[in-house]
Amino acid sequence: MTSAFAGRFDDFSHWRAALGERLDELCACLADIGFDDRPSGALLASLRERLDGDKLTVAFVAEFSRGKSELINAIFFADAGKRVLPAAPGRTTMCPVELAWDPSEPEGLSLLPIATRLDDVTLAQWRQRRDGWTHLPFDKSQPESLPLALRQVMSTRRVAIDEAQSLGLWQESNPDDNPRPDEAGRVEIPVWRHALINHPHPLLRQGLVVLDTPGLNALGAEPELTLGLLPSAHVTVFIVGADTGVTQSDLTIWRDHLGARQGLAFVVLNKIDALRDPLATPAQVDAQIEAQRRSTAQILDVPPERVFALSARQALVARIDGDALGLAESRLVEFETALSVALLPQRRQLLGRLIEDAAQQIHQRAARHIGEALRQQAEQLLELRGLRGQSSGRLSLLMKRVSSEAMEFEQCHTRLTALRSVHARQGELAMSELSYDDLEVEIDRMLDEIRSSVLRLGARKAFSALCERLRERLLRVQVQLHDTQDMLGGTFGVLNAEFGFGLALKTGPNMTRFIEEISLIERLYAQYLGLGDVLRLARPRFTAQLRRMLVERISVVWDASRNAIESWAREVTSHIDTQLIERRRGFQKRAESLSRIRGAADQLESRIAEIEQQDRQLRQRLERLGAITRSLLGSASGAVDVESHPAAVDVRRARA
Q1: How many CA atoms are closer than 13 Å to the CA of 374, on its beta-carbon side?
Q2: Nearest to 505, CA basis, from 522, 486, 528, 527
Q3: Most distant pair of Cα atoms in the chain: their distance
Q4: Partner of 319 for a Cys bridge, out of 78, 272, 405, 595, CB 3.0 to 4.6 A?
Q5: Is-contact 116 193, C-beta < 8 A?
Q6: Highest mean pLDDT (candidates 54-58, 263-267, 296-300, 393-397)
Q7: Calpha distance 181→145 (Å, rounded)
Q8: What is the reported pTM?
């Protein structure tokens, strides 16, 4: 029984595959017309890689025994006919678990030992390495090898409190969150710090990434989880128990780690089957469930429509047994549909917009390329048709004119060299504002301000000041780019008028989206620098982790902004070079044509017929380019109707 989410995700994947085919058609068309433009080729390759490697991350967060793993099994992996993730009473998932598929890596489970928390290496850096991990391959001949291997994420060991404290798993400042010592004074800690499951499940092959996070202890102990992985998730699902309601630890997780992401978070009130009472009427049970749902929304301060009451266990069993009525009673499909609506159309719109913008840019460049060739051929035809019945003296005058125009055209080299020099200096000025060394200096300045503040109470203020300085840098870059664009635009206009260029300036990169990313980082990270984190900020280890995380996270924004500037600069230079090559090639063709005709007068008509044939071919190619671009734009802008998906319709019928 296909889940509503899985069916919708299949449609999304088919749409991406269709877009990839359209992009391949556009590449083939550009090759046919001889359009060898490096920026366009790089852009197409980048888009193809983006489509093939696009990932959608759904993060599940909950305290222990809320049915989180069971919910993941019910939504994504019920087609396996059994539980994929271990789900049992008590603690199951003891470390963060990522489920994904990377065909370049072997299928299996990779586990990072908890002791790596003592190393000066970030979790993101560990993810780029194979050493240090424990790798457990899956035996494809044994169906039970996957769930058996995944039981490793439940592994724990007992250690002295000093060791737990050194690993960040015991905090004197938060005694309520610490594990309970046994008679020997030892506490239980997870064996593993992080788990990566590389498995070719159909949804994972299509780009889904599922992040399964354990309870409050792990969230507080692993800053990179809350500062890196959770903020990067496209949607977060927070699970609480319908039988317990929102507990104090649930509220702490929501307030400290998820509250700032309300617009990207859903709340699931799981285990409604525990509220069913044989002595109560169905209407009374439904009223109790609804009251619990609205109470949960009120306590967490979220809109009621983002809180879903359901039974993950009932849904999983119903899917495995093919029980449509049981699935409807579990109320899972309503949540799956909401999850699809929140995640897939937004992602499809984003990818579609990228494809549309790129397709229009490439079409404009290729059309200009064909248009320039058509213009040059029109000039040749005009000259050659004018030679009909003319003397050889007339032919010599034309050859001298072409030679004179070519020599005059070459004089623009000096101006183009000066233009490139100014353009390069402007680019260096913009890049200097986005120096990685300066970024680290700015972050160190923030940390110095935190250390010098009384009891670290100025942490949030210092962080906000850092973000403001980073935004100011991006604003200065934007002003420099506008100045550069104005300079290039004026010069292009003069060159077009004096030398017959067809130069057209593409709008420079907009720094607004990078400024918004800095603001988003500020909102997500500021919640970890409040009064409740004063003691953590006093620990050098936490401060060092915070520094590494900030450098790594903001460097992503710096990388993207620098790449946008460099890409624009390369495109401008390539556009100028292409125009130079095409103009020189045009002068060369005109001279060669006149030279051949001068040697044999009977070649005039054949040369005219040859150019006319080339003209017709170019126009056909222009029409084909337009048709392929329109097809690509149509595919990219297609709408998504989640509510009409067959899986959602089937369940609504079953409930009726």
Answers
A1: 15
A2: 486
A3: 114
A4: 78
A5: yes
A6: 296-300
A7: 34
A8: 0.71
User: Cβ neighbours of residue 93 under 8 Å, at least 6 residues apart?
Assistant: 68, 69, 85, 86, 153, 154, 212, 213, 214
**Residue reference for tokens 């050859």:** 399
- Between the CA atoms of 174, 180, 184 and 190, what dihedral angle is there, to the nearest 10 degrees? -90
The CA distances from residue 560 to 45, 128, 423, 478, in Å, are 17, 20, 20, 14
The amino acid that residue 334 corresponds to is E
CA-CA distance, 235 to 213, in Å (whole number)?
A: 14
- Which positions ≥6 away from 106 have C-beta within 8 Å? 135, 137, 198
Phi first, then psi, for residue 207 (nearest 5°) are: 110, 5
Element (H, E) at 160: strand 156-160
Tell me 84's DSSP state. S
Lowest model confidence (mean pLDDT) among 393-402, 473-482, 510-519? 393-402
Q: Can you tell me the distance from the alpha carbon of 292 to that of 32, in angstroms, rounded to the nearest whole number? A: 64
In Å, how far are 158, 242, 534 from 527, measured between CA atoms? 32, 28, 12
Q: Report the candidate in 378, 364, 402, 362 with the shortest Cα–Cα distance to residue 614.
A: 378
- Which tokens belong to 505? 């300036």
Cα 277 from Cα 285, distance rounded (Å): 7
Structure tokens at 133: 């991990």
Question: Among residues 395, 370, 350, 369, which one has the least CA distance to residue 19?
Answer: 350
Separation CA 237–CA 226 (nearest Å)? 14
Structure tokens at 43: 């852009």
Sign of CA dihedral 291, 294, 295, 296: positive
Q: 585 vs 291, 381, 593, CA distance in Å?
A: 77, 16, 12
H-only helix segments in 304-331: 312-321, 324-330
Instruction: Report the helix count and the strand count for the chain, using DSSP H and E.
Output: 24, 11
Q: How many CB atoms lie within 10 A of CB 1?
A: 17
Looking at residue 238, the DSSP 8-state letter turns out to be E
Find the angle CA(177)-CA(183)-CA(184) to the nearest 5 degrees: 95
The neighbouring-strand residues paired with 237 are 60, 266
Provide mean pLDDT across the span 147-154.
Answer: 77
> Looking at the predicted structure, is the pLDDT value of residue 403 above 60?
yes
- Cα 536 to Cα 548: distance, rounded to the nearest angstrom: 15
CA distances from 86 to 73, 92, 152, 198, 200 (A): 9, 7, 9, 16, 18
Residues 95, 103: Cα–Cα separation, whole Å: 24
Q: How far is CA 620 from CA 563, 604, 616, in A?
A: 36, 25, 6
Residues 6 or more apart from 545 whose CB is under 8 A from it?
Answer: 122, 223, 224
470 pLDDT band, cuts 50/70/90, is very high
**Contact criterion met (CB below 8 Å) for 524 and 260:** yes
Tokens describing residue 374: 């058509």
First-to-final CA distance of the chain: 18
